Automatic annotation (TrEMBL):
It comes from Marinobacter koreensis. It is found in: Cell membrane. The chain crosses the membrane at residues 29-50, 142-163, 175-198. Pfam families: MotA_ExbB. It is a multi-pass membrane protein. Its main location: membrane. It comes from the Bacteria. Keywords: Cell membrane, Flagellar rotation, Membrane, Transmembrane, Transmembrane helix, Transport. This is MotA/TolQ/ExbB proton channel family protein.
């Protein structure tokens, strides 16, 4: 579970909810027509920008991104070095049936066992990586579209409310409540964009970059294993994926500058 996202989203919602509860009656902030315009309008307009498969697929990608945390880079390197040692001692057939958490890595190991050459392994895994990038990028675009549309639908709802309010100016007492209802749509739009859609879109974009980097790590290691590279050399090669501080901690040589 990605606790940073969970804590951030839930914490922000609880913060706003607490401010509402400590003020006037929470019922003031609930309005059916306003929710219908903003939430329903945002979803439908976003749907109009994408295919049905892309739209609903974005929610599946988001759920997977938040439910499953990517493996740590250092742990992945250690796992790959262990795989390289087994392949060096027992041959690639010794990797058959090895249990790994990453489906991408499992697919690459199966290619090794099947006797694919390094160029084929790299080509197929690169295609798989690009497809994963495309799925994550599309999901991020869906939520970013919601972030763009949400405030606009809120403004549309506000304008509708103002027109309805101004058309009934005979009763001065109704102006205040009607104005409050009109402004609720702007609030709903801002909440959807700022507290929900934008954070999810940014998280998916970050996850896309991290997952692509991890898949490149797997690809480099698997190709090197297929070529019979020494596991120690593979470990040094993969250390370039680590942050500089972790590289220094592990005693890995820093890449030469310029």
């Amino acid at each position: 579970m990605d606790f940073a996202t969970l804590i951030g989203l839930v914490g922000a919602i609880l913060l706003i909810a607490s401010a509402i509860i400590l003020g006037v009656s929470p019922d003031v902030f609930l309005n059916g027509p306003s929710l219908l315009i903003v939430v329903g309008g945002t979803l439908l307009v976003a749907l109009a920008k994408f295919s049905i498969r892309q739209f609903f697929g974005a929610f599946k990608v988001a759920a997977r991104a938040f439910k499953f945390k990517l493996p740590d880079t250092q742990e992945s390197i250690e796992e790959l070095v262990d795989i390289a040692n087994i392949a060096r001692k027992e041959g690639v057939l010794g990797l058959e049936g090895r249990d790994v958490k990453s489906p991408f890595l499992a697919q690459g190991i199966q290619m090794l066992v099947d006797g694919q050459d390094g160029a084929t392994i790299k080509e197929l895994l690169d295609k798989e990586r690009l497809m994963t990038l495309d799925h994550n990028r599309t999901a991020s675009k869906v939520f970013m579209a919601m972030a763009d549309v949400g405030p606009a639908m809120g403004m549309i709802g506000t304008l509708i409310g103002l027109v309805q309010m101004l058309s009934n100016m005979e009763d001065p007492k109704s102006i205040g409540p009607a104005m409050a209802v009109a402004l609720l749509t702007t609030l709903y739009g801002a909440v959807i964009a700022t507290m929900i859609a934008t954070p999810i879109a940014d998280k998916l974009s970050l996850r896309m970059t991290e997952e692509a980097r991890l898949q490149m790590l797997y690809t480099d290691a698997l190709v090197a294993i297929q070529q019979g590279t020494n596991p120690r050399i593979i470990e040094q090669m993969l250390s370039s994926y680590l942050p500089p501080k972790e590289r220094e901690k592990n005693g890995a040589a820093e890449p030469a500058n310029g």
